[in-house]
Fold this sequence. Notes:
Chain A has about 400 residues and is an alpha+beta fold. Chain A has helices spanning about 15-35, 50-55, 75-85, 95-110, 110-125, 240-245, 250-255, 260-270, 280-305, 315-340, 355-370, 375-385; strands spanning about 130, 150, 155-160, 175-180, 190-195, 205-210, 215-230, 235. Chain A is globular, with a radius of gyration of 21 Å. Chain B is an alpha+beta fold. Chain B contains eleven helices and ten strands. In chain B, the strands form three sheets. A four-stranded mixed sheet of chain B has the order 1-4-5-8, with helices on one face. In chain B, strands 2-3-7-6 form a four-stranded antiparallel sheet, with no helix packed on it. In chain B, α1 (about 5-20) packs parallel to α4 (about 65-75) and α5 (about 85-95) runs antiparallel to α6 (about 190-220). The two termini of chain B are about 20 Å apart.
Amino acid sequence: MFFDNVDFSALELPPAALELRGEVRAFLQHEIVAGSYVPHLGHAEFDLEFTRKVAARGWIGVTWPKQYGGQERSYLERFVITEEMLAAAAPCAAHWFGDRQTGPSLLRHGSEMLKQKYLPAIARGDMAFALGMSEPGSGSDLASVRTRAEKVEGGWHVSGQKVWTSWAHKADAFFVLCRTAPQGEDRHQGLSQLIVDIKTSPGVTVRPIRFMNGEHHFNEVFLDNVFVPDDHVLGEVGQGWKQITSELALERSGPERYMTTLPLLVELIRRLGASDDVRAHEMVGRLTARLWTLRRMSLAIALALDPASGNAGVDLATEAALVKDMGTFYEREITDAARLLVATEPALDAADTFERYLAECIVCAPVSTIRGGTTQVLRTLIARRLLGALK
Amino acid sequence: MSASTEVRTLLADTAQRLFTAHVTQKTLEAARDGGWSEPLWQELERAQLPLIGVPEAAGGAGGTLSDAAAVLRIAARHAAPVPLAETLLAGALLAGAGLKAPHGALTVAPDGDQQVTAVKAGATWRVTGTLKRVPYARAARHLVLLAAGHVFSLEPAHYRVTPGRNLAGEARDEVTLKHAVARAAAPTTITHEQLFARGALLRAIQIGGALERALQLACDYAGQRVQFGRKIAQFQAIQQELARCGGEVAAAVAAALSAAGVVERLEGETGAAATQQVLLAVAAAKIRAADAAREAVAITHQVHGAIGVTDEYALHYVTLRALSWREEFGNEAWWATQLGRAMQQAGADACWPTLSAA
């Protein structure tokens, strides 16, 4: 039904991954003690200096070939790095998208020129990517994007508007999903991914959209006849939809879908101290059990998708949707348990870490079940697998 | 595919064929009245499926705990009314004490010292007390129990069985022992906690299998039942609920099978770290499976409408089992309290290192 060829009984991290975990954990502890960043929950912060330190250790693009700045390590090692960054609420926004999405897309679909140009720069922390997917009229229904590219001599002229583009005001470039051919019978045809240099391309305007707590991470990006050379089309013209959906399994199943509120659970346990309140035990125990389970499912997907596992071609997109759906609700369970067990009025400017984390988690809670596929879209996908092709 | 995976696939195929052929609506109806199905048990013995995961040297069929889990999961999908989990548990307990597992259906009393006293007179151990809700006691050729630091095996001639049943009609009997002579006795290092945890793990695996069947039935039904001129599976309201159910069931199965793998790998290790990982895995499996049972049983019944609550329809054979099994060997509140206490005692800074240790 789900996870059909996955052997859960054999899920184990190899020694190399455990060793790497120790290194990453020590690095992050050092950074926190040195005060190089203040952990925040809800949204990963954009901190180029931090990203460069991570890059200097070779931890961005770890699974990529060495010729493109990678380390040729396993997906499980990448999994471990991601986990540790999340557990420490590290400011990874400057390399998150490149490491998780644009890098793997470039590797799979990009020309040699594009790979040479971007991958080593991402791995060095010299280049930050954003994703230009949603539009004012296209949220869950991504195939309805209206941003258009018209063929001109040597390239394309792109016009349209993107929204919710996280960190576009700081990123160097972004992937733009747009229509390169008019919509025909199959609406998934005729879409392409173009790589647009945000900082230097004439015709690109980035404007902030403030989050409800006043913070600025997302933007709207206007594209007005922006010229994109032919060699900056990712993969095949017209195959953008297929390229995007083929990357979803890893993107949706990773620890970032269920671990962003974990530091609050840790601070909750600190706050509860040696209390022998059975109600607290029960809630902490249940949260622990659910995290343990989500992690096994997420690990199973990372392991199965690793090219080294010999499972090439295995399709775990539905399982990934399951992990994201349950993971995003799990994150809120931590938040809710924290507020029910500790009577406090959360404040974003609280001096106390527990109280500040709680406030950050509450305010950011609505986002996780919307971005990267809403709950309802994910469940429609899952139901399709369960029910088969219904006529 | 590794050799061990191939063996397990073969075992699963064998189990699948056997249960499909021999567990019919008639089998289930008859077993609900009698408490179990002896003919089905005979078939299992012919196929050497009981005692998988118990070493051959101890009279078992060999194989790993995960092999046993694979068979148990399939048995539960079919609501097989036989003491398979109980025989496995008894076999493991006997093997751990160096005793051979006798032929035939076995059972284990989950509680020992709290309810019985074992006294040695000369060379003979005699056990006295009343054991409540012993699974399949009426079917067992031997009752295995843990008391006074020993594993005992007793024969039916030496105790009295008063029939009882769980919500699904599975035998949950009372056993009265009056100076009952133990046929075999041996000292053991296995503790009540370990026995209870192994029982909880087996029940979590069974819940996973039962819920898989319930979900399958609900999906099949939604694809056939027509209302308002359409198959109900075409309504988004139904789809969203089935998808949520799918997540619950997948999580229950993932937790239970993963936990079996952890327990298998750490078998025999006595260090604090290993003990903690076993508690984490078993508690997670039982808690997650029980939580899933609550959600998945409610959804699968809701999708079926009134037909699902009728005696003639097969759904209740798996849903009532899942609901019963979640209470046995500690319910989710009990396990969550144990796990939460351990996590809090270890402290905040040990939380993530513990969760990420394996």
